[in-house]
Design goal:
mainly alpha, 2 strands, about 0% strand
């Protein structure tokens, strides 16, 4: 009986053996949603760069410079170098009767102007937008006519209304009232009387600015699907019910934007006041605004430091009121 010996394994040759390489770990695959989100964020950043750069250049840097100037005693045309005042400008603004009185009166005039203009102009713009949101002949002409005052500069609007509200018998408003009353209406100083000076500024401001808000609201109305109104007609809903349950909810976000924009613009009122005070006989104390106070303090009284303190305080007040308004009238679908 023969035995079979096991075959011996061939000797292992290390030189001829293939090199052993460690397996590379596989890279995790990023979700497509994350990649798309990062790409959208980058595109949004690039598209917003010009606007952000403009805000920094024309708002951020000047405001920072105004903050610095408010801590110094800076006089236009003075040979003396600016001296550091610290918080003295702010203390005088609220404790010195000669400074705090006109400033608080100007702030009250600004608040009065905003309280009247914001709801009245927004409501009037909404009414005009609803009126012009129709398919009628020559509707584009009527839209252009209502929008035309927005194209005019405020200085030109102030000059036009100075002719309308002139205190002489040749004033357009006085002449019209004289004719309607069969000669019983005499000359009245609409701009010089303290009871009607602010009302005159409010009326001309609303006339000039309502067309801009009207266009924004008209664009919002045209985004509401017409099927909703057709369904409401089938359900026999009246005009008021359609306005309350379809129109207002459909343009709520647009209304919030228009109200906030009108609030900011109403606090910036300056051009019409300055033009009518300097050349139209407007009662200065009755219509003095914070922007007018800051400009006259800087260039009429040559007190740049005090004017800078006024603008800084006013800027903070406007920002606080805007944030409060945004919090109160924030749309329901906003996070």
């Amino acid at each position: 009986m023969t035995s079979v010996e096991p075959a011996h394994a061939a000797p292992y040759d290390r030189e001829k053996a293939p090199p052993v390489t460690a397996a590379k770990p596989e890279r995790p695959v990023r979700p497509a949603r994350s990649v798309r989100k990062n790409r959208d964020w980058l595109h949004g950043l690039l598209m917003s760069t010009p606007a952000v750069a403009g805000l920094i250049a024309f708002v951020g840097i000047p405001f920072g410079y105004a903050v610095v100037l408010s801590f110094y005693n800076v006089r236009l045309g003075s040979p003396l170098a600016p001296s550091f005042f610290g918080l003295e400008q702010y203390r005088r603004l609220f404790t010195d009767p000669d400074l705090s009185g006109p400033f608080l009166r100007a702030l009250l005039n600004n608040l009065t102007f905003a309280v009247v203009v914001v709801p009245v102009q927004t409501a009037l713009a909404l009414g005009l937008a609803i009126l012009l949101n129709r398919k009628l002949k020559a509707i584009g002409l009527f839209r252009s006519l209502f929008f035309m005052p927005v194209v005019f500069p405020m200085a030109l609007v102030a000059v036009i209304w100075r002719l309308i509200l002139a205190r002489s018998d040749q004033g357009m408003l006085n002449s019209a009232l004289h004719a309607v009353s069969f000669g019983n209406w005499g000359a009245f100083d609409w701009l010089g009387d303290s009871a009607t000076a602010m009302a005159s500024i409010i009326v001309l401001s609303i006339w000039q600015g309502v067309g801009f808000q009207m266009v924004i609201l008209l664009a919002g109305l045209q985004q509401i699907p017409g099927e909703l109104y057709e369904a409401a007609d089938l359900d026999r809903a009246g005009r008021w019910q359609q306005f309350r349950h379809i129109t207002l909810p459909g343009i709520r976000g647009t209304l919030v934007f228009v109200a906030m924009l009108t609030s900011v613009l109403s606090f910036r009122v300056f051009d019409q006041v300055y033009v009518l005070v300097k050349g139209g006989g407007l009662n200065e104390d009755a219509v003095r605004t914070v922007m007018y106070q800051a400009v006259t303090t800087a260039f009429d009284q040559n007190n740049v430091g005090q004017a800078a303190a006024i603008t800084v305080v006013f800027f903070l007040i406007v920002v606080a009121l805007t944030l409060i308004q945004r919090r109160v009238v924030r749309p329901d679908n906003e996070d």
